[in-house]
Amino acid sequence: MSDVSAASPATSVAATSAAVPPMVLAEQVSKSFGSNEVLKSISLSVAKGEVMCLVGPSGSGKSTFLRCINHLEVVNGGRLFVDGELVGYTQKGDTLYELQPKQAAAQRREIGMVFQKFNLFPHMTALENVIEAPIHVKKQPKALAIARGKELLDRVGLTDRMGHYPAHLSGGQQQRVAIARALAMDPKLMLFDEPTSALDPELVGEVLDVMKGLAQSGMTMIVVTHEMGFAREVADSLVFMDGGVVVETGVPREIIANPQHARTKAFLSKVL
Ligand code: ADP
Ligand code: MG
């Protein structure tokens, strides 16, 4: 992970784009809701295969940042790239044009997102939830989608729950279905927004274990979480946000052991 906010924008952009493009690159990204500036010149990059944990107090802009990456919000300033492509816009000369809905949808299909609330379709079984988008959005043949869906449910430890409806699954099982459902679209990037915050404490571990396996398989992930054990053990980088700015970034173990900023210290003292 490289925090480009400290360097001058001109150097950092040149340095980053010369090599393989990072999976995510934010250059001075800002986002406001009315007069409320929620993201204030966020600059960061996430390399391919990197797992970044994004932490910070409630209201600091973490969800908004993920939502901008995933086309659920549009940035007001700066530029955001996923795998070298500008998110939501195409650039001609110095002018940015908004992408057509179809082009934006194509970009978005390559990004998986898992929310605090699992958002499964209640009237569909676990397997039906997982194969829905591959069949209807990706136009995969049903037999292929089923075979792949079973494989994914197997991978998240739900071999014997494929025919169950969400109401008959625990929160941890539902969240694992949600992860399998996101993976079924073969994303190149996975975003997790507090995936374990709605779970009973005894169910948190099974979801984190699945995420750890995914990280070890090489998936690029941005994880908003308060689980500092996960950050320390699994993440390559940690970004601490507060009040819409990146306050501190670095190696999780180092930041957790030795935070440099008073705000990081105050936050960590509450979650550790
Ligand atoms: P976090 O995920 O770090 O808790 P959020 O990104 O959810 O923070 O929110 C940051 C700020 O943006 C909050 O002040 C919140 O009220 C505001 N906000 C988020 N989404 C919207 C929205 N759709 N409309 C207006 N304000 C919003
Ligand atoms: Mg949030």
Automatic annotation (TrEMBL):
Matching PROSITE patterns: ABC_TRANSPORTER_1, ABC_TRANSPORTER_2
Superkingdom, natural source: Bacteria
Keyword terms, alphabetized: ATP-binding, Nucleotide-binding, Transport
Reactions accelerated catalytically: a polar amino acid(out) + ATP + H2O = a polar amino acid(in) + ADP + phosphate + H(+)
EC number: 7.4.2.1
InterPro entries per UniProt: AAA+_ATPase, ABC_ATPase_HisP-typ, ABC_transporter-like_ATP-bd, ABC_transporter-like_CS, MetN_ABC_transporter-like, P-loop_NTPase
CDD domains per UniProt: ABC_HisP_GlnQ
Domain ABC transporter stretches: 24-268
GO molecular function: ATP binding; ATP hydrolysis activity; ATPase-coupled polar amino acid-transporter activity
Class of this enzyme: translocase
Alphabetical list of Pfam families matching this protein: ABC_tran
Entry's family note: Belongs to the ABC transporter superfamily.
Protein name: ABC-type polar-amino-acid transporter
Organism of derivation: Alpinimonas psychrophila
